[in-house]
Amino acid sequence: MYRKPMQVLMIVMFMPVHSVGFAAEKAKPAEIEMHHPKGWVFTMPKGDPAKGRAVYEKFSCYSCHEVRGEKFPPLDKGQAVGPELSQMGPMHPLEYFTESTINPSAVAAKKYRGPDGKSKMPDFNADMTVQELIDVSAYMASLKPKGVAKSVTGEGKVIAVVPETREIIVEHGDIEGFMEAMTMGFKANPTSLLKTVKAGDRIRFTIDTDKRVITRIEKLK
Fold first, then answer.
1. Which residues are within 8 A (CB) of 106 and not within 5 positions of it... i.e. 6 or more apart?
2. Which of 41, 69, 85, 157 is deepest in the core (most CB within 10 A)?
3. How is residue 205 annotated by DSSP?
4. Half-sphere exposure of residue 9, counting CA atoms within 13 Å on the CB side?
């Protein structure tokens, strides 16, 4: 039945308030979040490692970082202000390399910092485009050590044992051909190894280089 506009207005005016509210609630779209969602983390878009390699070369990153297996010019003598990178690819998420590029002092190890406490790495923020940053991050994250033995042995001191993540945190020396000296968390396989050590123990340990897990531990005196 056709109703004139005034009749429709009168019907709406005299509807119970709760009914009008219900109708509006049913009609409104899904709530829009005007803040960052719970659990939000920054993630990088997918980049092109091949283009990222060209960016790496463009900015002469090889002057300070060795990349085993790549045919870049040799390091500038006395200018190695960062770690060898092929070992780093499997160890960190993509965003780690992004942060290392735009804010190197946030993650630089102590030995790569100057007397002022800041990273010795130069700042490329004024020269590098966002797309170049995306691609060079993808390149560094894609790197993997080449020609590494199936297992290697290192020595160091246990900093902590973390049963929840099945990790042993070890401050270790150079592991030749695999990893430079650093403090690193390794998962233990078998997990029974977690019960054999405690913080402060000096150990010799064997790493499965494919799985990046400790497979054997020997306590040192």
1. 99, 100
2. 85
3. E
4. 3
Inter-residue contact 107 to 83 (CB < 8 Å): no
78: left (phi over 0), alpha (psi -120 to 50) or beta: left
Smallest Cα–Cα separation from 69: which of 142, 146, 139? Answer: 146
Rounded Cα gap, residues 7 and 134, in angstroms? 61
C-alpha 113: how far from chain center: 20
Question: What predicted TM-score, i.e. pTM, was given to this entire model?
Answer: 0.68
Round to whole Å and give the CA distance between 62 and 6: 78
Q: How far apart are CA 207 and CA 221, in angstroms?
A: 20
pLDDT tens digits along 125-174: 999 999 999 999 999 999 987 777 889 999 999 999 999 999 999 999 98
Q: Which of 97, 102, 125, 122 is nearest to 112 (CA)?
A: 122
| DSSP per residue, 97-166 | HHHHHH-GGGT--GGGB-TTSSBSSPP-TTT--HHHHHHHHHHHHH---SS--SEEEEEEEEEEEEGGGT
Of residues 97, 86, 91, the one with CA closest to residue 44: 97
Q: State how far the alpha carbon of 122 is from the alpha carbons of 76, 103, 113, 159, 178, in Å.
A: 14, 10, 11, 31, 26
Tell me if residue 28 falls in helix, strand or coil. Answer: coil
Residues sharing a CB contact under 8 Å with residue 111, sequence separation 6 or more, in sequence order: none
